[in-house]
Write the structure tokens for this entry.
Amino acid sequence: MFCPNCGMTITEETRFCPGCGAILKNSNANQWTQDVNQAFRGAESQLGNAFNDIRNSFNGGGAPRGPRLTTDRSLLMYIVLSLVTCGIYGWWFIYSMAQDVNTACEGDGDNTPGLIAFVVLSYITCGIYAYYWYYKLGNRLQSNAYRYGMQFAENGTTVLLWLIFGSFLCGIGPFVAIHILIKNTNEICRAYNQVNGYGA
């Protein structure tokens, strides 16, 4: 048998010509070459996926995995917009804060009730539930700060004390309590956004 490429004499079992290196068609060399090439392509694809996974883990996981949360709430905006909208913004504020906290603190075994529960239960309890809601929110924010590498000095008790006893300080106590909740919520939401690939 002769090599069709260079004419060198070879045996029938030869897969590659020893003279020129050509692949011989009359053997199983083509099938073997295809199998090898396919194996290399599969390995290359798996290796590429592994590199992509590693790169994404260093880049914060690649594409964002959750909604972007609000991080720019402020006490001044809360006061002004509540006055301008005759209190309607205050209800929206409660609703959006509960939504964001539930998203950022998901998996902690707790849940911050939304606007309907806040309004109805506050009405039924003559406003007592509102204090409980703020207290629970303050505690939840403090307990979830650790999962984002932070630590809050203020907790639900701090918020509750400002709400009740701070009212005797020219009525500024409730505003201080709301400021604490806004500040800590903004920090939690900012940390959540960073973890989920949104940056600061």
Observations:
- The radius of gyration is 33 Å.
- The chain has a mean pLDDT of 81.
- The chain is about 60% helix and 0% strand.
- The longest helix spans residues 29-58.
